[in-house]
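Sequence in, structure out.
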Amino acid sequence: MINEFRSGIRIPGMKIGGGWRRFLFLLPVMIFLPYLLSVLELHKFSTTVDRPRKSGKKPDHLVLGPAAGYGLQNRLHCQGTKALNKTQHAAPQSLNAGENVAFVTVFTIYNSSEKNIEKSSSDLVTIGNTSYTKLERSMAILESFIDFIQVTMPSSNVIILTDPDSNLNINKERVTAYPIQGEYSRDRLMLQRIRSYIAFLTARLEEHNEHVQEQMNHYIFTDSDIAVVDDLGQLFDQYSSFHLALTFRNNKDQPLNSGFIAVWGTAEGLQRAKEFLEEVLEAYTTRYMKASRMLGDQLALAWVVRSHPSFKTHRFSKPVAFIEEINGASILFLPCALYNWTPPEGAGQFHGMPLDVKVVHFKGSRKRLMLEARNFFRSSLNMDDMLCLVLGSGRTKYDF
């Protein structure tokens, strides 16, 4: 009687108590089971039919978009790959008599055994009419780096600091491989780069002190994935009172980029640059080894500069060159917008490309674009149109 009274209803053939409670528990499942099965079936259908399958194949050609910066003053304006205005390039080779500029980069070869391995379709990337393996791509990027220098600064030498085991064979005039013993693994390459720079400067300083040189060489240390699109000789003509130059951007955590370092070719310039890089190396090895594969060098650069008591970090907020004394070295700070410009990615693309850009840096996956740009320039022989190709290329269109 008590159970009948509490439930208010009795179903014939069903035991009172546990059975009734199980029925109430299963009732929602019975109601919603058809809907659940429908949802699962729909999900299965969408995963097998509607959802696109990932092929893993990346685009093998460029698709141009609108060129960033249209309508802004002092920016390159383009219609497709045709420049509507002209870049403001300096007169060729504006150095004083007896002076020259040499470019120095660090480059090594990984997996050199690939030379003897037959090309496989999964390893190939086609750019234009040429297919590249990973090793061939690396060499093509280095050759592109050299080609752009030889177009814009034909009297400049290119020096490649490399692992003695790399066996680099570059058959180009005014190009020299300079072996330096060290640790060139991928995890230590950025660290080794600074050590190689220091070793090179030490050797040049010793040569400078031993005998008088007929010609003074200024040095520009760069990554090998840059294109020099203007004569940088004017840098040493326009700014005559610095020991080394660094490029900066308005970035709170990484304001300095190590992909471009210029050094004045006098004994004092070589000495001050060597001492400064030794400070950077010490900061790198004591503070930023966890970032040894990437960014450690840039973090160390920023720490050495910012730790100087008189330095004002707010000067990085405006793209205007300035000179500061840092631990005895006169350092020229140059805006990345001109001397280390990177093809657009994200919000930065809306600023476009300055008309007086000097160096284009094809960081990361932009290296495909570097090869596309070189091929385009070879066919057009027009630097401004080539820069329009670079400016109008979207990131996903040039990933390796």
